[in-house]
Write a structure and sequence with these properties.
The chain has 97 residues and is an alpha+beta fold. It is 23% helix and 19% strand. It has 3 helices and 4 strands; from the N terminus they run ααβαβββ. Strands 1, 2, 3 and 4 form a 4-stranded antiparallel β-sheet that branches. It starts with 10 loop residues before the first helix and ends in a 6-residue tail after the last strand.
Length: 97
């Protein structure tokens, strides 16, 4: 007969093994937005976070999905608040949206 001893796991080990979604907890919001921009992903930012993001430095442009509104409803990639009205930024040569 073989016996197995179950090892109790700490909360830190359990959290480390779960798949992260969104911005990692240890990273600052500005660093996370910079990483999204360097990967060429679409970025949604609230009005407060938009002031801190220099979208022209990453060759991004503000997108309007509707001619009457320049904002979309979503979660801010900078401060993770939402859903609220956010600005949508995409790479300048991205015409698929």
């Amino acid at each position: 007969m073989t016996f197995s001893i179950a090892k109790t796991r700490s909360k830190l080990e359990t959290l480390r093994d779960t798949k992260p979604t969104g911005k990692p907890v240890q990273k600052l919001a500005g660093v996370w937005v910079d990483e999204l921009a360097s990967l060429g992903k679409a970025i949604t930012l609230c009005r407060e976070c938009k002031r801190k993001f220099n979208f022209r430095a990453y060759d991004y442009e503000q997108r309007k999905l509707c001619p009457m509104w320049d904002e979309v409803i979503g979660e801010c990639d900078g401060c993770k608040t939402g859903p609220l009205w956010c600005q949508l930024f995409t790479k300048r040569n991205c015409h698929g949206i």
